[in-house]
Amino acid sequence: MSIPDPYGAVPDWPKVSANITADGTAEVTINGSPRTVLSGGGDVAQARAAVLEHLSVQTAGLGRPLRVETVDPEGPSHLVVHPDGRVLPLDEQPPNSTARSWEQVAPGPLPGSARRTKLGRSKHGPLRDALGARTAGSEALSPTIPPEAGTADAPLSTTEPDGTSALPISPPNSPEQTTAAGLPIRPTSAASPSAATSAGATTSASSNTPETATIPVPSATNQMAKELGVPQPKPTLPDLLATRPPAPNGPAQDGWQGAVRRLTGGMISPTPSPRELEYREAVASVQRSLRGPKTVVVVNPKGGAHKTTAALLIAATFGMHRGGYTLAWDNNETRGTLGWRANPARHTNTAVDLLRDLDRFTDVRSSRVGDLDNYVRSQGSAQFDVLASDEDAASAASIDDVAFDQLHKALARFYRVLVVDTGNNMRASNWQAAINAADQLVIVSTIREDTAASAAWLADGLTAAGKADVVHNAVTVLSSPARHPDPALHDRLHAHFSSLTRTVLDVPHDPALVSGGPITYDALSPSSRAAWLRVTAAIADGL
Asked: Rounded to an integer, what distance in angstroms lies between the CA atom of residue 350 and that of residue 44?
């Protein structure tokens, strides 16, 4: 059932309705054409959000609000969805609203992945420009427009019958509330005096001088705009390239499929196995293009949590698949063990030595990446470098937050990925500086009660310190301390950290890591290398 708009502000065409069932299914019908926007299996709140996202995209492409009749388990509602993502009950639309009144609303982000199409202006008004005479009910928007107006020979008037300019009217402030359908009502804030003056000046000028802004054209992918006959932009080269099919998978290299291909000289070439396709997808994630240098910080305030092992193997995986420009950095305020677990170099210089000579690398005209070889330790075929912490037992030097920031700024000029191993003191200034610089946090723990409790305490502390978003985006890595870890504890830790961080991944026990000596990537078992590749791919997804 449809109800009249008491203000005549929003045309009742096209006919839009949304139906939400108790099992979370959401269906939107536009002019009799239904489309399922969310299948069952969720809840009503998710279904409402999916409907709002879908309709926000439609209104953004169409260039005006839409009336929507919704029916869900709580009953029917009559709403208006605006291009800026606001949702209002139909009977709460601003009095005497016109096309210009909602055009002046400040844009805001739409829910989910929807993007608001930027509205331009023209002397004809955006609603008429977008739909022309096909939109029923549009006569209420300009009482002085004759039926044939809107064409090139009969431009539309921008003034009211008494000759005054049509000023925008904003809805009054109201606290955030929800409609009968459960969709959020987003009130607009009252405009400041300066903003009102600016808006009034702009509208007044529009009645005397023509505006030259480009008329907005809805997206070519907006199916609703196509159905309404709105002019679509001509396709360009990016449009053509976007329609290319995905690159075909190459021939199988591993497993029995790869063996058959090699034995037959390629005459028989089976498709890659699901495991090989998963491997290729992980490698592609690790190799993805990054927007500037990125910092990965590995944390757990307890010793023996495998922080150093994780930092080295994450850096090695990045190095092996990205081809260098990766650094593993021991950010311990005094002494750490990263340098001991790495392959040695001809020198024993550490972060303290680099800090002392840092002036050599602050001048972009004379500093060279090769000069860093006297301070970092190359890891050969693993294609990454290691910057060790102070190893002099008699030294009184330490790294604080200022020193960390100076080193980080210099090293970020030479490396694309910096993997930072941290100490055990969360209150140390350099530890906190590393957290502040982190693009991706990695929380590590063995599957033991003590190290897991330490990791949970860390997450609680960071959340209390205002770093909840950092924790939420973190990757949790659970290392098995034995071949067969406690399954009940494993499940408990997965349940706990899955609710705190973006993902939780397991790495198996590997005898090659038990001795505590230098870690050789090639000595790892295939299952370990595959697990650390999955970990590194998840980290790269967060960068």
From this structure: 57
